[in-house]
Amino acid sequence: MERDNHQVGETEGVKICDPPCESNPPADTLATSLSLLGNHMFPDPVERNYRSTVKEEPEDSLSDITAEEESLDGDPHPHQVTKLETEETESSGCQNNVSTQQLDIENEDAATDNDRSDSGEFVVTMLAKAKLEEQGIGVKGRSSPLLEAETQEPPAFMSHRDEDVTADSWRQHRKHVFVLSEAGKPIYSRYGSEEALSSTMGVMMALVSFVQSGDNIIRSIYSDGHTVVFLQKGPLVLVCVSSSRQTEQQLRGELLYVYYQIISMLTQASISRIFEHKKNYDLRRLLAGSEKILDGLLNLVDSDPSFLLAAVHCLPIASSLRDALSQILQKAITPNLVFSILIANNQLLTIVQEKTVIEDSRLEPADVHLLLNLIGASSAFQAGEIWTPICLPLFNPDCYFYAYISYLDPPECTVCLLLLSTDKEAFYAVAECKRKIEEAMMAQNSLSLIAKVQSYSVSQVGVSDLRHFMYKPFDVPDNYRQLTQFTSPEMEAPYSSEEEKMRLLDLYRYMHSRIHSSSRPLKLIYHVAERETLLAWVTSKFELYTCFSPLVTKACAITAITKLLRWIKKEEDRLFIRNPPKYSTTPNPSKSSRGGKSDQQDSTDNGFLSLL
Amino acid sequence: MGEKLPQVQGDPQLRRDTLSRPVRTLRAKMVLLGSSGVGKSSLALRFCKDEFRNTSPTVGCAYLTQVMHLSDVTLRFEIWDTAGEEKYHSVTPLYYRGAHAALLVYDVSKRDTFIRAQVWLRELEKQYVAGSTVLWLVGNKGDLAQHRQVSVQEGQSLANDRGLLFTETSALSGDQVDKLLLAVAHRVYECVGAQQGGLSEWQETPHVDLRRRNHLFASCCKVGP
Which member of A292, A383, A435 has the closest CB to residue B41? Predict the structure, then answer.
């Protein structure tokens, strides 16, 4: 085992001297069966490709983020990262602690390896079987001449669902996400059809249950170039296979979003009930039609920093306009209405809550993200008014709200109203609220004012070297229970192309992982990357990520940040939803919300009631 | 196909030439039921906007309205376009309860959707009060004739056996869609409107107390969504 740990540690990317997988003796350890999984999913051509690129570059894979950066970052040696507050050299320190962290994980897994001798063989057989199936039987269903053609590049018209899972292009996706049931039944795959992947998912489940049989939990696997992260949630197993170099922590957070999105459609209670009743239930039956919502979520997770920061990005508008909109929402209420949310271009304009709700619990950013994704992913909303059950997993994972969703500006469909009620029969009453809101907005000409609203440019801050930033204020006593928000300017040149945007986000993700490292959290990082310089700073009041041009000096950057913070303070009222108004939908204020609702017939499936 | 439509007024212009006269406006609830992907939303879009778009799966239920002018009355159709996905089945009673017209939609090129429509029919029949709901079987995607799995005769004979009305449509081409809506309107007005309290009058701010309706399906909501 000792040797094993060591090897995994090496594979980690601290230093890779020789390719580990091929030199391994036949799979007789967990780690080797894991590398078999790697082989299985990313067979030789890809692996070799990857290795050859790695070999050309200095093996400093933890201190760099993207491949491009790697080449230059590696050159000036570990010192490109200079911390302002800590004493030792950043990179080596980081590497050390990251690898120990990984060793810890491996050690955890290793605990199970004692009884490996019995069940190890089983895993290997399983893996071999699955591999056979995938290449033989799995492929047979498709016409073989087509298959050969498809190995190059999937045609543009092909949806991700029809992708050939044996093709190289499939393996090269940056981030795969799989969801399966404990019985090993496929539920969702980001790329390729679940049927074609059933044996791959079977292997994943074999790994999970193998480790489980030793009273342990598999958390992650590191192979060179890929990180495999497992998350078990009730009867569901979520797996992420990523070459994005994000940390395990970040990837697990993303898997959690996927889980929450599934919960938002089905509720945790009904999922557990279904699987208690029938272990090998095919959950795809219930998720049919929702794949797009999950696909959309994963694309957002990759491209929108809100998920990384666990905060909501609201549209910057004059506080007078925001207040006026909030008041309109505040006036159009009906019993059992709990949240009124106004959205423009998929960003929050304002959010108004029922008084008693805000006292009991606040709306979590993740729940807002799920709602925004639901609206963004479904063009069907544009047709009419929608009335649908929806669960807010962080608010209460077992109950439904009923959401009324309607666009206020057809046919453009940019301004969207979302009203959440706890009463499933309240459609007509809630729809009436929408008419009131529409009328009031018409009277105040709000729609045309909203149409003029745009995200802001970093140039407004007036700091020449500053290219981009993300600022997330923390809860302070007087705005406790307020939605966590962050503000960020438009990504402008040189971050206008999709690739460059992604590259900057990857840099931010790296900074974030360093700040939030579980073993060695940092307060301040000054990171000189290849084409830009980044500075991240976390205090008790805020979390800030800034991106400067590469020629900025440390002193300059610090002055710039002081300026930036002053600017944000000045613009606060425009950048954030400051004092979200509350309303009371209980007809009689002397009655508690509980009393007000007790006259409903079927209170059992009223989400909010059972929460109280 | 057209000859199967009962009570179709030969001239669709008929519904417009009565605009000048002040007529009563009655509310009529119509629900579209059927498997996912049979074209319920496309039909609803044809009914209301006479256009065709590729739609993504409906979330929950979409609510649309369309006003139909008949010779002596105006019907304001409140169309509940339900999601066909199984996860929403337990909430569907919420949408079809108290409907004056229920359109059971299937895809003529997919036999299983035809079978599914019959399951919906059985469920509706459980709460069916004679004369309160007009049931209509709709075979959609008539434009996919070359992939047809359910013949016109089959649809027609199911409709005859179970006392439904039957039409084949194409939401893609718009074939028979107008006629269907008009026929449903006439039928609803004749069957339901004639009854005491069958259809309620529509005011600018409609208020309906849904809670006093029967609770036959209240228990359904305990399973799943």
Answer: A383
